[in-house]
Amino acid sequence: MPVPWFLLSLALGRSPMVLSLEKLMGPQDTARCSPGLSCHLWDGDVLCLPGSIVSAPGPVLVPTRLQTELVLRCHQETDCDLCVRVAIHLAVHGHWEEPKDEDKFGIAADPELEEPRNAFLQAQVVLSFQAYPTARCVLLEVQVRAALARPGQSVGSVVFDCFEAALGAEVRLWSYTQPRYQKELNLTQQLPDCKGLEVRDSVQSCWALPWLSVSADGDDVHLVLDVSEEQHFGLSLYWNQVQGPTKPWWHSNLTGPQNITLNHTDLFPCLCIQVWPLEPDSVRTSLCPFREDPRAHRNLWRAARLRLLPPRGWQLNAPCSLLAEATLCWQAPGGGPCQSLVPPLSRANVTVNKTLELPLLNAHPNLCVQQVSSWEKLQLQECLWADSLGALKDDMLLVETRGPQDNRSLCALEPSGCTPLLSRASTRAARLGEQLLQDLQSGQCLQLWEDDLRALWACPMDKCEYYKNCPSPQYQELESRHSYR
Predict the structure, then answer these.
(1) Please, are residues 306 and 368 in contact by the beta-carbon 8 Å criterion?
(2) Where does the Interleukin-17 receptor C/E N-terminal domain start and stop, copy by copy (predicted)?
(3) What is the signed CA dihedral for 388, 392, 393, 395, rounded to 10 degrees?
(4) Minimal CB count within 10 Å: which of 52, 64, 309, 332?
């Protein structure tokens, strides 16, 4: 969730705290570092390619924390743009190699092997910035004398000035090294608009910026744009997605003033509003006022869909990122809860609109995927193969557990739990346990999944229920045995 620069109420009023910002004169990006470090900013932007994590060859410098500050970048005293200053805090990752035995006993080392602590630790640190519709990456070279570096300890920071951004925009920052030795740092923040800053005299776009407020009226939400009748401005509603590009939803060029009504069913946590004067190089103001709105979260969950991607892929599709866990479950016909199967799909957070693979050997109509939302524990379930394989089958799911020395045990998944086969319980699986075991051994059951310790089997039960009305003498004998228990 973004870290707010100031508290934003649903009815956007004037912020009680107005920030006064430092002014930077000139268009050039710069970098400076704390004492003990030396740093250099590469000319121009670079490609944003984090790459895979690799093992550090020894002690290396890595970013440990990102810190931001708002400043103004000014071309003239009254012609400024909002800019984000970023401080990257660095520390030493990894350890020096232990001295060799001859060093411990005072034996002279090879003179060509210089003591590593007389050298420098160097790092190429990438700083990535994204604020719709802008994306940039810059590269900073940093070095510190190895004698000053201690594993795990901070060595200082490097400060970058600065990334220009629109008033009210949501900005995202990432930092990592090239090559990358650890997971990249990330930070998301919401910038204030003209109302929350002391910039009226410095940022020209604030002089004639359309003032936007959001208010609720029953099931409707009103967007009120307080501008003069002659002023022309653009208004865009878009879905600000964490994964993937921002998706425009509605756009129009309008003349003020305007009062636009949204139905409560149109609200989503990532629905944002952007407004700007229709003038050259005008600054855009963005607001995302529905992040904590319960109606928006309920709408998002209702709009989410589970989709099968043959042969074994699936996706959770939704307009916004969604905090949810997914698990595989077995849905028996006749209703009742879908019974969770920890293997083969362990509970884990799911990335929206990303293809995921189910490690199954065979598909089955009774296999379903459940999503559980962290917002009010709402649940979504989809039996992914219902369309292609037909209705739910009256099959029994057998869980095989494999032990040492080729020992194995079998139980059947029932509403009351997993019933061991050949037990004296009064459940359906216990009564049919002997025949289920024979079906499994004769290859009549379908293997759905396996690993080194477990396997799942689906055994058909549609031959005859409880062996009644079965012409086979074998089934009649089994039914006779069970009736005397």
Answers:
(1) no
(2) 71-460
(3) 120
(4) 52
